[in-house]
Amino acid sequence: MTTTIDTPIGAAETMVLNMGPQHPSTHGVLRVILELNGEMVVKAEPIIGYLHTGIEKSCEAKTYSQAITLTDRIDYLAPLSNNLGYCLAVEKILGLEVPKRAQYIRVLLTELTRCASHLVWVGTHAIDLGAMTVFLYSFREREEILKIFEYLSGQRMMTSYFRIGGLALEPPPGWLDKVQRVVDSLPGHIDEYEDLLTKNKIWLGRTQGVGIISAADAIAMGCSGPMLRGSGVAYDVRKAFPYSSYDEFDFNVQTQTAGDCYARYQVRVAEIRESIKIVKQAMQKIPSEGPFRAEVPGIIPPSREEMKTSIEGLIYHFKIFTEGFAPPPGEVYQAIESPRGELGVFVVSDGTAKPYRVKFRAPSFVNLQSLPKLAEGRLIADVVACIGTTDIVLGEVDR
Amino acid sequence: MDFITQHPVLVVSLAKIVGLMFVLMTTLAYLSWFERKVIAHIQSRWGPYYVGAHGLLQPLADGVKFLFKEDLTPPGADRFVYILAPVLALTLAMTTLALIPFGPPSVQWLGESTLIVADSSIGLMFVFAITSMGVYGVALAGWSSNSKYPLLGGLRSSAQMISYEVSLTLAVVGVVLLSGTLNFNEMIAHQGGNFWHWNIFYVGHGSFPQIVGFLCYFMSAVAETNRAPFDLPEGETELVGGFHTEYSSFKFAMFFMAEYANMITVSCLATILFFGGWLSPFPESWTFMRYLPPVGLLALAVYLAYDTVVLARGIARIQLIVVTTGALVIGLACLHPVVLAIIQGPFWFLLKVGLIMFFYVWTRATLPRLRYDQLMSFGWKFLLPVSLANLVITALVKVWPLLVNHG
Fold it and tell me: Based on the structure, what is the number of domains in chain A?
């Protein structure tokens, strides 16, 4: 009997451990196959696909407007960012100009989304490393932000608030006061988390020097967002390729040079503060009056009143919601800076009312491939920290 | 009656054991309530709230839940060892409580002191002998489950508990040097006086304050009991529960109770060794302080009455009436001179233990978890040298007068 086992020399003592897909700190259903030498990770291999929902394919069976509701479900921690990316792409292919008021409101809401998403990240990353109180604190603040979304759109998470050409609804009166309250209280709360974590010896020990990725490696891996900025590359789509009037806002790109988990933690916390700055500016800029979406007959639905009083309005409304609208044939790529990195939306139109192909360049998916580089040669506990700081959302990884 | 008077040791011991078991089991259950409540309030939540007034019946509901869960044994597990492990863990954890004096030996019934089950002259040695066996429960559980996460948890805990036992023991040797005995009651009697006579503070002739010793002891004890921030064997977010991943139903509950029993043990030890055990922190001339227990209980009753009348609704109100009456009755009973004399020791002892337990829970809510290698280097490279240095200094201070006089 001859059996040949393909094992490298010296690896006979290793143990293979399946981390996930059911595991408390793989942030959903990520599965990582770990080859362990004692507690040390010799090899880490992320396996994805457990949350594949076929969103990209489903988009092809929907009209351009209907597909917006699917984009909410990609990165369910930052639905408004996905909405924005998709809407901008479709607007680009249509050549639509979105009113300034809608643009500013979009900026404000996506920055709040960034805050909410980073708050979830701080909390879950802290609980991964054993500090469970931060988790409940940050979810408390996130809930206040979600209440604003609910007030605007009627939904806490799956908002679908951004539509092609602008927004779904006129924002209700008094919403800016709610935003103001959150903006006023949030910096103090972030100080609370920082009190618990930033100078905590154990926290430093668990994050500093763990999961290091150099700037060159990060670029080679296609990393973006805080993953890249934590390694010292000041690349931010909002600055590099401004969209939705981001060029009118004054903010800094947060970077750290260490490239370890602690650097990424610092980048994200600083980004929450920076986002608050942008929100404050947007609150100043948003005019109280003005259209909340473009007026393009046949593409943008007419107002309720117009639909009920004019025959053209009624016809357009009916046509838009039954057969949709057909953009000119062509293809377009639009990138935005989602909380996780560069979220790219590639839309191919064949001149019909449904997209021929929609492809999302999901930052989580791309960032995840750096996990073996981060985790190999370190301990099991560090794998958890590394998964945490790549900030993956499995819905986005698998789409 | 003849039998009782003829065999006082047997009867009193049995009564003490039964009483201690009853109190201990209730305490273990309510410690989980206490921990959940404290952590909840730290995290700006309410914690258990719906099962009984203030969630007071939650431990009962948890107990019932544990009993009715399916008792699973993973395929390929070593059945005997798999069942032995939780039994071992719980038995050993509860055995040590027999050595703990909850009050002065002067409280007696039939000529036997009632507030300690076994007043051994080698109390401290015995406790350490038993707790050091506690590692078997965890290690065997991890090994016998035939599963990888528990195996890693078991490995971690074996290493951790053995490492920290060294510094734990070294940290208390200072106290043994100062009091010159291993008997708990004598150690406590040695710290008589006011609170600055406690070993942790006392700066006297031939004595060195054991504050460093206490800190080393407490940190080692937290690691020894596998509690946050040293809860690596469980490491919920890494090892999915560690050594007890595969355990369910009552076997899991036994590990759970063992953990709490261990916490009680080390808190009791800390109280005895460093905080004067059942001694009151106030000078004996302050006789009015003797009325603190009944006054405290009556104040609690007043609060509960307010709670009953103003805040509670429905069935919670009925439960609160029972609890309030209980607090009121015990509080009033404590005013009786005999009861008042008996209650002094246990009151202060349990108060101190409770404060240390609170500190336990507080750290759990605040700190992240250490990594395995950091834990090891902290234990061997920091705690061990520091507790050794503490021991050497204490010994030097103790013998210094002798050296000077003879030299």
Answer: 2
Q: What is the ipTM of this complex?
A: 0.81
Q: Given pLDDT bands bounded at 50, 70 and 90, which one contains residue A278?
A: very high
Interface contact flag, B156 A39, Cβ < 8 Å:
yes
Does A255 lie in the same domain as A193?
A: yes
Residues A273 and A148 in one domain: yes
Asked if A110 and A230 sit in the same domain, the reply is yes
Q: pLDDT tens digits, residue range B19-68?
A: 888 888 888 888 889 999 999 998 888 888 888 778 888 888 888 988 88
> Are A138 and A266 in a shared domain?
yes
Residues in chain A: 399
Domain that holds residue A79: 55-398
Exposure string of B392-407, with b = 16+ CB inside 10 Å and e = fewer, is eebeebbeeeeeeeee
Residue A23: its chain B contacts at CB < 8 A? 240
Regarding whether A296 and A148 lie in a shared domain, the answer is: yes
B377 touches chain A (CB under 8 A): no
**Is there a single domain that holds both residue A273 and residue A363?**
yes
Going by pLDDT thresholds of 50, 70 and 90, the confidence category of residue A29 is confident
What secondary structure does DSSP assign to B134-177, as a single string? Answer: HHHHHHHHHHHT--HHHHHHHHHHHHHHHHHHHHHHHHHHHHHH
Record: contact A130-B373, CB cut-off 8 A: no
Q: Determine the average pLDDT of the residues in A270-284.
A: 91
- Cβ atoms of B361 and B35 within 8 Å: the answer is yes
B186: contact with A, CB 8 A cutoff: no
| Interface membership of A270 toward B (CB under 8 Å) | no
Interface with A, mutate which of B227, B237, B366 (most A CBs under 10 A): B237
Q: Record the pTM.
A: 0.86
